[in-house]
């Protein structure tokens, strides 16, 4: 899946980082966020505190960490404790208004919050809080949490945080900073990842361990679902499980697409999982072909797995440009339509006259897949077999990914054959849900992977708001093509007659 | 008083504007704020609403209205109702965080607030609100008002606003915007100005009528102290006096320095008042001299008045550069000290061999006056007589000007003679408080001007917070010089013996 | 004359500065150019050399010196010798391409040139040079000079410069820098100013001595017309007169408008000259009035002179905004027409019910004067008498000011009465040419001022290119009004009957 | 080879594009340059002409085409003919001064030139031109060509261009634009590529055909060495061979590293050539290993070739970050050393406990290779075998790549074993020159590849300037390690004893 497609469809995606006990806290948070930049490229923020000082220092910017957090900006973030956040968001001032960490002053003192995930009862809580006289300056779930903390009757900040989080539902990996302590925690379902490590004497937490690798910190372990870790400035630490227990349902899409291939998430080596998806996909939907080509970069491990399993050679048939910046401005009506072509180029010598298997991690709307297949055909491919290393994405996520409407998801309303026709593939196959489960976990005998697979199955493990329930259930109109229905895991289409 | 000095010492200064009923509401607010730019140059903001839509559109920027509010930014501010704000503030993200209008969502719906002034019980209210579970994202008084509105038990937004404002004390000229109405109001003491006008069918409110002149609106009148004006989208209007009555005490410093010379404020023609200050100053502290020279631009009207009264010719002996931008960056240690010289240049032919009267509106720390006198002497002046068109500034303001500490005010801790020596004038005189009262009002028989003169007298008409009371009363250390004490209104020093 | 009008009409205006022998050469050039910023605000440049190094370091930027030459930019300008340039120019890359100093490599080594003025035979020389195989990368006269230097048969750089300049005609005050020496020189007619001073051991040259005042350098004297000053890195100096002698004809418009009021130019105190223009204008064209009001800032000294001579009180009836930046962007069609109003505001209390004399230094197109008079009338003035402190501007300048076409000059095609009607003044009078001569020089018995007055008389002291001759002579169409002709120095119009 | 390393060592690298006969000439040049961005990322420029107009419109910017050439910039480039250029260069204004296309005015009219390559006699020509009175405003070879054109005695521009180019030696693929025609040509040695195509009725030329693919133009063919193609606005075309014949010696490094893998250059499919380098490298220097890992992205095709030939699985063991922008600012001393780590991350699951073959296209200084091996070892690799898909880079390029000094090339002064020790590989092998020749061309029986291989052999096919000859021959000091010498093509080091 190309960033371009992702940018239009996935509204919310985040990464969080925290460190306590290092004199260069802001600089390390800069590094930690840089390593999480794939989780959100639109805005970034860092909040710091100084020992013995009740101020919260905050800098938030639109743009990449490495471009926005200059030495000058970092110099305004003193102290030995810091938390940070990267996220996607829409442009304009509202983007900055909703940027995180949010920093508020409460009766318990100042607190900064950086949140990855999405609350399912945020709307209800917000309505209740407003009716009780609360004001909201942002549209973030995180501000709801801040209000709940401030309105708690608990004796101290820590208890107030626990109190607040026991009122929320949904997905939340959260990092909090106060002048006294830093907290990292995962919701009871453990939807989003969070891991803990050491950097010399300092404590570090991060959405993914790749942050630790970059700064030379050691990875200790992932937090368990529902686990909360508190590290105090005085050196003491607490590990708690303060929430009602739930059956853990980590997000399987973290393994499919979100997390970095060099990360270990939910106890799985991400690169290995993705290669296995490719292996299984090849077993499920192998096809006579000359070459396996990934959609870079997210399709690379699955394509390698497909190639190794099938024996069809892996080749780099699509070259990605490194020069399409975030600030790319489409200069004229004619150029406006060059989207995918500005980012990908076909390698004719790899594709010409070949039967090509194109492997991608997922399909959202299908428009990019269609353009890629067109490009591959124009380079001379004789056949194009599209293979998707995950099942059909049929349902929106309400736990931190926020695909806005079912109607945007081609697989929500179209059969396999319809999709194949739309993207103009000779054959099309998705990984089956069974294959996906096998890829993420060797033991699938109970038919359950223990993951949230709602985007593929519509089976939402955490109750949705009624509003969202409706969105999840509504039958999207079938606008594009009329055709017979294929089965998931099944291959449709056939090679053209020789 | 040069901007440079002002920038370091006066932390808060604001202007507000509002319009309802014009299709180019944001554009007119742009013009209105441009005409109020002298009241605050560090940040500016505009909030708008569209009829029949519950959104609040807000854009806030650091910098000048005319540079920051480009066509692109204005295009994101749709609707026929808008309010705006200009202010001083410190740099960095915190500046933007505290920028106004603030816009919040409440149980009554969205509201935007633009506030000129300072609440004296903001700290107490904030502490109480925090103890009740409110969170604060800014350090502004305006957020306190927003919380009080949201927590009101009133039935509707308008009553909630009245309820909230009956709980606050201090100086506040306020403009509020909701999807249904726009409000303009002055606190019962009427410390800060606010006036009302018409622009064709639309209603306009502004800190000063100079906004109306610019856009061709007609000036109707100033709001009375404690008066509140509500104009609804449906065309109806209300004029109310919903607050406890107080003896009005408008800020005399608005006439001395803040307001534009072309404005009418508190029923006075500002230019005329300033000229009269110069007239009276000449009568009180005339001196044999060859030329009267203003410190541009704030000293110009008083210098003209001084010259006309004394018969000493008025000349432009100091030329102001128009090319020292807000973004002036001092490029090296050597250039760092050029401050005043980069902004003012002496006209040698006016000053050489002359006995020069230099007239300024006020002295804060005295450092700029000292540099100016040095410059005038280097251009060959034989004598330099410094005349200040207001009394000694001895006390900080807590009603919207916020001179942070008494120790920064040279006149708080130094005698007239000490100041004269420090700034190296041959003679020095301030306008007496009696003279000032005469200048602002022809009828002063009761010995009262009806104005807040706290910065000159320490007599604070609105009760201060205990914290501020201490600051106002504390005896600043005398750090600079030891010398005998002169009397206010008295001239000290003497021309050098020929 | 407001900048706005000037910006549209005057295409070329420059200031130059140089220093040799100071370790902070670039920093001082920064200061020197800041003090000359009124001579050109669109681009600025600095070139430096290091002793014992054959490189030329050059930085050129669009915008104000104080905003563009940051510490970072200055740090790229090492060395103890520097020259600089400020100029007007149109926007876009071409502006930067034509920015100065120009720096070229020649057979004599590198040289940088900063030029104030305009060559009258540049076109002919350029055509000849091109026909001989020269290439031109800019459209500046300065590049012509560089080519002539490089093509000289002289033995060394200094002789080549002299050789080159003996081939050019027109106005040129020039500063040159090579690794060995710095040169300052004025053309034989001495059209543009240039002065020389000392800063400790270093030599400084500048278009106006106001640069020296700012940096604390001492003013030695102005260069004579045709004089050339060479200062070598080894401490030696040469004063030469290497050009064919001409009758000096310095530009009288430098005294009327260009130079800063605090400067001494062509041996005259500029502020004093301008006041005398006002004095004489009052004697020539006095009128019964209540108040004299300048168009700020250029009309101020003449208005003071007018007031003092006439006894009519001087008042600040028009207030200038300091917040209309160079980067002012007009945000919408409605606001686009606010031009003058965004910059000037009327002071109603000064103007209402009054007979007002408005004094400006000159009129170019008349459109701004017309807007100002409208503004003054709307503020309630009973009568508006417009007085111009110079004669009618009837002819374009070809010596460095480049008013592009006669048709843009209202006085080129319209009678005094026609202009009066157009600008809607009750009466209008210009200073007579005789009066101007008297103002600039006490001795005018020979009926000659010794100045170039071509813009007022059409009498061009330096031969023009045939092309320019045509432009100067062509009869501009009379497009605006038809009316009888008034005489220069004569007052037209009459107060309205009571 | 990572960009980072390249940025420090390779000073000059360019791409050129041209189009004539399309109403959106500038927009297409934007696209064409975007597709050539890998050939130079520091500055870009476009020049256009309008039919029937003698102006040349030029915009040059520092930065990426897609970020700098906004709609606003493109709108200043009217016309149906355009040429463009991308290049590397050092920062600062000098970068802009040397940016291309250069545009000059000559006796033949205006011309713009965009040049890829390096002249070997530029210094001598420049000295001669300077001695004849030419001035140089840049340090580019292209300005030398412009001078030669302007000084030609030919009758017209076209003949003057031919005349000029017959005087230069070296590498030059050149695109020229005048109001009448566009030219594309290659030097007689054909060192740099240039190809020709059609876009509907328009003619296009580009350094690589990937530009054509992007815009949907058809590829006609590469220009032959010494061939010149002229396309006139009136639709006529000329194909000429106006230069002295030379034995063609295209740059082999274009195939090794420069050109895009999806391009066809010098009649070779670049991707296929690079894979063959990997195949042959595996045959020459195979090693027992568990995994083959490329240095992304330039090492990818060779690594695939190595893996396919050796049967050792290909894996993505190093992940490249897409978020290290051009404007990356290293924020503190600690972070300053993160260079390679910010760009590459190891995939532990791929590397841990494995015998790893790391494949890169070339080694310049060896510092990056050393850091990569450290990273691979820290991720747990048991053995690291470094394989380089080209021979040792021992000599600087003087034909457009300009590696500044031999002393920077580790292979110029160090034996294979010394390099192996320095980069800390268990074994190290380079592709032999014989292997390289085999990879680029199936027929190598004559022992000659017909390519310029000077960077590997020191055998320079085009005579060098005496100055450059010295640089090429000088014996670089051996600064880093002392060790015995290995042979090219030979593998050094051995797996650690089990």
Automatic annotation (TrEMBL), chains A, B, C, D:
Gene3D superfamilies recorded: 3.40.50.2020, Glutamine Phosphoribosylpyrophosphate, subunit 1, domain 1
Tell me which UniProt keywords the record has, alphabetically: 4Fe-4S, Glutamine amidotransferase, Glycosyltransferase, Iron, Iron-sulfur, Magnesium, Metal-binding, Purine biosynthesis, Transferase
Q: Give cofactor(s), names only.
A: [4Fe-4S] cluster; Mg(2+)
**What positions does the domain Glutamine amidotransferase type-2 occupy?**
14-234
Asked whether the UniProt record includes 4Fe-4S among its keywords, one would answer yes
Q: Which residues bind Mg(2+)?
A: 298, 360-361
A biological process (GO) of this protein is: purine nucleobase biosynthetic process
**Where does the chain bind [4Fe-4S] cluster?**
251, 397, 452, 455
Q: Which residues form the signal peptide?
A: none
Give the EC class as a word: transferase
Q: Which PROSITE patterns match?
A: GATASE_TYPE_2 (PS51278)
Q: What pathway annotation does it carry?
A: Purine metabolism; IMP biosynthesis via de novo pathway; N(1)-(5-phospho-D-ribosyl)glycinamide from 5-phospho-alpha-D-ribose 1-diphosphate: step 1/2
Pfam family name, one: Pribosyltran
Query: Which InterPro entries does the record associate with it?
Result: GATase_2_dom, Ntn_hydrolases_N, PRTase-like, PRTase_dom, PurF, PurF_N
Q: Where are the transmembrane segments?
A: none
Active-site residues, as the UniProt record annotates them: 14
Enumerate the residue ranges of region (Disordered): 466-498
Composition bias of kind Basic and acidic residues appears in 467-482
The UniProt record lists the keyword DNA repair: no
One GO MF annotation is:
amidophosphoribosyltransferase activity
Q: Give the catalysed reaction(s), semicolon-separated.
A: 5-phospho-beta-D-ribosylamine + L-glutamate + diphosphate = 5-phospho-alpha-D-ribose 1-diphosphate + L-glutamine + H2O
EC number(s) recorded for this UniProt protein: 2.4.2.14
Q: Could you give the cofactor binding note from the entry?
A: Binds 1 [4Fe-4S] cluster per subunit. Binds 1 Mg(2+) ion per subunit.
Protein family per UniProt? In the C-terminal section; belongs to the purine/pyrimidine phosphoribosyltransferase family.
Q: What does this protein do?
A: Catalyzes the formation of phosphoribosylamine from phosphoribosylpyrophosphate (PRPP) and glutamine.
Q: What is this protein called?
A: Amidophosphoribosyltransferase
Q: What is the lineage of its organism?
A: Bacteria, Deltaproteobacteria, Bradymonadales, Bradymonadaceae, Persicimonas
Gene name in the database record: purF
């Amino acid at each position: 899946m190309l960033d371009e497609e992702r940018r239009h469809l996935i509204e919310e995606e985040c990464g969080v980082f925290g460190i306590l006990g290092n004199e260069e806290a802001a600089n390390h948070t800069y590094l930690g966020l840089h390593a999480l930049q794939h989780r959100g490229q639109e805005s970034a923020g860092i909040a710091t505190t100084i020992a013995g000082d009740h101020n919260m220092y905050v800098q938030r910017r639109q743009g990449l960490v490495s471009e926005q957090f200059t030495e000058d900006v970092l110099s305004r973030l003193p102290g030995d404790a810091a938390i940070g956040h990267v996220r996607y968001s829409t442009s304009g001032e509202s983007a900055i208004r909703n940027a995180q960490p949010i920093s508020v002053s409460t009766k318990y003192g100042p607190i900064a919050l950086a949140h990855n995930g999405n609350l399912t009862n945020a709307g209800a809580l917000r309505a209740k809080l407003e009716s009780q006289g609360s004001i909201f300056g942002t549209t973030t779930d995180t501000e709801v949490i801040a209000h709940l903390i401030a309105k708690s009757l608990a004796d101290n900040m820590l208890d107030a945080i626990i109190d607040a989080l026991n009122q929320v539902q949904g997905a939340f990996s959260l990092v909090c900073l106060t002048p006294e302590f830093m907290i990292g925690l995962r919701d009871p379902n453990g939807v989003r990842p969070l891991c803990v490590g050491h950097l010399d004497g300092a404590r570090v937490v991060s959405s993914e361990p790749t942050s630790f690798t970059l700064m030379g910190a050691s990875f200790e372990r992932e937090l368990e679902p529902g686990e909360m870790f508190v590290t105090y400035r005085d050196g003491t630490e607490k590990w708690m499980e303060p929430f009602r227990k739930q059956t853990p349902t980590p997000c399987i899409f973290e393994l499919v697409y979100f997390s970095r291939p060099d990360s270990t998430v939910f106890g799985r080596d991400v690169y290995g999982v993705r290669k296995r998806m490719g292996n299984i996909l090849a077993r499920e939907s192998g096809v006579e072909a000359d070459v396996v080509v990934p959609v870079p970069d997210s399709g690379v491990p699955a394509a390698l797995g497909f190639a190794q399993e099938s024996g069809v050679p892996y080749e780099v048939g699509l070259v990605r440009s490194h020069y399409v910046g975030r600030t790319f401005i489409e200069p004229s009506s004619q150029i406006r339509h060059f989207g995918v072509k500005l980012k990908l180029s076909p390698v004719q010598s790899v594709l010409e006259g070949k039967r090509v298997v194109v492997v991608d991690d997922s399909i959202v709307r299908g428009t990019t897949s269609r353009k890629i297949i067109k490009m591959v055909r124009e380079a001379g491919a004789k056949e194009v077999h599209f293979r998707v290393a995950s099942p059909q994405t049929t349902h929106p996520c309400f736990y931190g990914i926020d695909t806005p409407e079912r109607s945007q998801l081609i697989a929500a309303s179209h059969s396999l054959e319809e999709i194949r026709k739309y993207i103009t593939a000779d054959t099309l196959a998705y990984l089956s849900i069974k294959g996906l489960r096998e890829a993420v976990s060797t033991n699938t005998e109970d038919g359950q992977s223990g993951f949230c697979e709602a985007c593929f199955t519509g089976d939402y493990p955490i109750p949705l708001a009624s509003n969202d329930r409706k969105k999840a259930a509504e039958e999207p109109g079938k606008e594009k093509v009329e055709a017979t229905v294929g089965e998931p895991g099944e291959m449709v289409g056939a090679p053209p007659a020789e």
